[in-house]
Amino acid sequence: MSPMKLCVPGERLCSTEDCIPGTGTYLRHGYIFASLAGYVLRKNEGEELPVISVVRETETQLLPDVGAIVTCKVTSINPRFAKVHILYVGSTPLKDRFRGTIRREDVRATEKDKVETHKSFRPGDIVLAKVISLGDVQSNYLLTTAENELGVVVAHSEAGAQMVPISWCEMQCPRTHAKEFRKVARVQPEYLQA
Amino acid sequence: MAGLELLSDQGYRLDGRKATELRKVQARTSVFAQADGSAYLEQGNTKALAVVYGPHETRGSRSKSLHDRAVINCQFSMATFSTAERKRRPHGDRKSSEMSLHLKQTFEAAVLTELYPRSQIDIYVKILQADGGNYSACVNAATLALVDAGIPMRDYVCACTAGFVEDTPLADLCHAEESGGGTSLALALLPRSGNIALLQMDARLHQDHLDALIEAAMTACKGLSKVLDDVVRQHLEEVSVLTRD
């Protein structure tokens, strides 16, 4: 592999006429400068100009952005909302846990006012959700599960066994055969283990 | 002033340096595995340790977070054994608070905080041995730690002190020169663009000498930036050799 070029913050890489700035770079006076210490990567995205970015060996903290699918764990529920800890953004684990909220009206798309949070989530459930807002100063990230593919993916029954989903609103414990209510995510068949 | 001659007739200073000569700078990054970024820097006898955590969610009072950028939280402290006499209050005293505020101001100018709204970047700096140029050593160590943590910055921030004795500007003052009662100017610079992040001066100076003094400090900072650059590049090469198969 050809040795990639090293760069340091503040180093001028090229002008905006040659490349489009990517991650790890910033624009100033019509030139692209590096903002990280790492390797310069030039990728041809298929558009007119290649994208130039700076990559490091180890990934830095990724922040959840609006529209991102996140994996979170429910920490507490209350009749109005459920509080969660965001663990993964997409498939990247976060070093630190961010706090999120799923409001009662964002749990599902239909019959929003008839939602009961204790029948949708329980503390300890792993939920797939989408970020709708970064929230304002006081509040956490706002998440929604109002889609078929979003909702509870892993839940444990009161007996302690991992439950199997039966429908979009019920899961069954394999040990006691008791059914519990959850807002279940419809995971694509190819992701389910046989 | 009796006794101490800051600049001898042959042009040598108290520690044998010439007027524009810097002290020996040695630095290492990634000294701690548990922090996101860390660096240890020695500038002559002044030793500083900087540790960076972040960017992470704002801890403590939520109202401190800004909606469009990251908050930079700096804490400066000196070890009790860092000065000639044991320091009674290592942090929390007025000088440390002022220094923390200056560091915060300096790095807010260099770090691209708009990329991390509603989060916090913590910079902790500790002086292990104080021999003049405390602020400069802190800034240089913190720059290396930020680069090590992978936090995007516009440019390095290099800092140096400068003084004035008998129409000659001196670069990189040691403790004896700083406490001699003469002028002491601390400058934090973004070397490639030449932008000044922070400029601070103690004691009085005639207006005519100001330009020469700032010029001397800027040259010293640019020299320092080359040293820091070498440290960063060497570390990058070491890391890549280890991870490349």
Structural account:
- The complex is a heterodimer of chains A (194) and B (245).
- Chain A has 194 residues and is mostly beta strands.
- Chain A has 2 domains: 6-55, RNA polymerase II/Efflux pump adaptor protein, barrel-sandwich hybrid domain (OB fold (Dihydrolipoamide Acetyltransferase, E2P), Beta Barrel); 68-187, Nucleic acid-binding proteins (OB fold (Dihydrolipoamide Acetyltransferase, E2P)).
- Chain A has strands at 6-7, 12-15, 20-21, 25-28, 31-34, 38-43, 51-55, 69-77, 81-89, 92-103, 126-133, 141-144, 151-154, 164-165, 170-172, 179-181.
- A 5-stranded mixed barrel of chain A has the order 8-9-10-12-11. A 4-stranded mixed beta sheet of chain A has the order 1-6-7-3, with no helix packed on it.
- In chain A, a hairpin with a 7-residue loop joins strand 11 and strand 12 (141-144).
- The mean pLDDT of chain A is 86.
- By secondary structure, chain B is α+β, with helices and mostly antiparallel strands.
- In chain B, helix 1 (94-110) packs across helix 2.
- The mean pLDDT of chain B is 89.
- The chains are: A mainly beta (194), B alpha+beta (245).
- The interface between A and B is medium-sized, with 30 and 36 residues.
Keywords:
heterodimer, A: 194 residues, mainly beta, OB fold (Dihydrolipoamide Acetyltransferase, E2P), five-stranded mixed beta barrel, four-stranded mixed sheet, B: 245 residues, alpha+beta, Ribosomal Protein S5, domain 2, four-stranded antiparallel sheet
Report on the biggest sheet of chain B.
5 strands, mixed
Structural class of chain B: alpha+beta
What is the CATH third-level topology name of chain B?
Ribosomal Protein S5, domain 2
**Count the strands of chain A?**
16
Helix content of chain B: 25-40%
Main CATH class of chain B: Alpha Beta
Largest interface: A-B, 30 and 36 residues
InterPro entries (chain A): Csl4, EXOSC1_C, Exosome_cplx_N_dom, NA-bd_OB-fold, S1_domain
GO molecular function, one term (chain A): RNA binding
GO biological process, one term (chain A): rRNA processing
Protein name (chain A): Exosome complex component CSL4
